[in-house]
Amino acid sequence: MNTKEKDLQYIMHTYGRYDVALQSGKGVIAYDEDGKRYLDVSSGIGVNSLGYCDEGWAKAVSAQANTIQHMSNYFYSPQASDLAEKLCRLTGLSKVCFGNSGAEANECAIKIARKYSFDKYGPDHNEIITLKNSFHGRTVTTLAATGQEVFHNYFFPFTQGFKYAEPNNLDDLKNNIDEKTCAVMLEVVQGEGGVNILDKQYVQTVATLCEKNDILLIIDEVQTGVGRTGKLFAHEHYGVTPDLMTVAKGLGGGLPIGVCLCGDKLKTVMSPSTHGTTFGANPVVCAGANYVLDTIANDAFLSDVEEKGRFLEEKLLQLSGVKSVRRLGLMVGIEIEGDAHDAAAKCVANGLLIITAKDLLRMLPPLTITKDELLEAVNILDKTLKEITA
Length: 390
Ligand SMILES: *Cc1c(COP(=O)(O)O)cnc(C)c1O
Prior knowledge:
The chain has helices spanning 3-10, 43-46, 55-65, 78-91, 102-121, 140-145, 170-176, 200-212, 283-296, 299-317, 340-349, 371-389, and strands spanning 22-26, 29-32, 37-40, 95-99, 127-131, 162-165, 181-186, 189-190, 196-197, 216-220, 244-247, 258-262, 322-328, 331-336, 352-353, 355-357, 360-363. It is α/β, with parallel strands linked by helices and 390 residues long. It has a seven-stranded mixed beta sheet, with helices on both faces. The longest helix is centred in the first third of the chain and has 20 residues, at 102-121. The relative contact order is 0.16. The site of pyridoxal-5'-phosphate has 15 residues, from helix 5.
């Protein structure tokens, strides 16, 4: 059996895959099992922030794998302590809790929000308002947090206590707030929901409203974080500070990590045995994340991300098949003439690895991509869109 046949026989069919088996990669380029070359502007859904097999990253990770690869959370870990210190210093937040994925980081944020409210106001003060069209993960609770009806199916009963408000609609949010509200949870740019960039005014007013009413503001930066939008974290564009923030995808540079950070007000909420995970704070993963942060967290790197994003947007808007572009940094949604899923599959066949978000094409290229590589991506997209409309 070849890779595809084995996959179809032995792996549960929970993903619609493109017809490609990736074998290796370097930078922005991936190769399949037959040696065919692909330019990758998806970076494993924003995960390979430094591209494939970045030399410094791979060195940091393999050095750590050759030093100590895992220890339980009953011991202190220098790599985890360093990463936590770095994250707090860079965000102004106070403490972190390590996990292994975005959904887990969000679960952690939800638990902290509920425990804070339980300790202070009792068990009924537990509701979390999220936004329609959001995406927060695939566990039973984060599915419930996800404000899209299609996700609320099959796995009943879902976790109670979530309400959904219309994004960018302050009145709808206010109408959902009552004496039970403990938190508001949002992505400032909804990724899976179609690269919807929230209004600055809206986010700022929500933050003020939350602060005034002791409602916790949870910002899900799983997709937007770690330089993706041209700031280290996307909420910096909005001038707000979350009480809780979650980070995952791009942080590990390709290894699984999820982090929940909290501000001063929440730093003593969690006590021994209120939360934990065996793999969380793994030193190999943390060594990779430390390297990623050391590379990305500086003004020159971040302004280059924005500069390349602007360049890409300008080139995309010149294509006849492109109707509009929604973009912050290198988080890019492309509205096209014709079906985005069809276009994505044809791009892949033409050597461009690209993904979709709702009915848009989506690019989340490695932050290290060059302008020449962006041009090559735009050219393949142009050719593909012309094939479709021909
Ligand atoms: C991908 C994503 C998640 C879920 O992360 P996993 O690592 O897949 O569990 C949560 N929130 C947002 C905004 C995401 O983009």
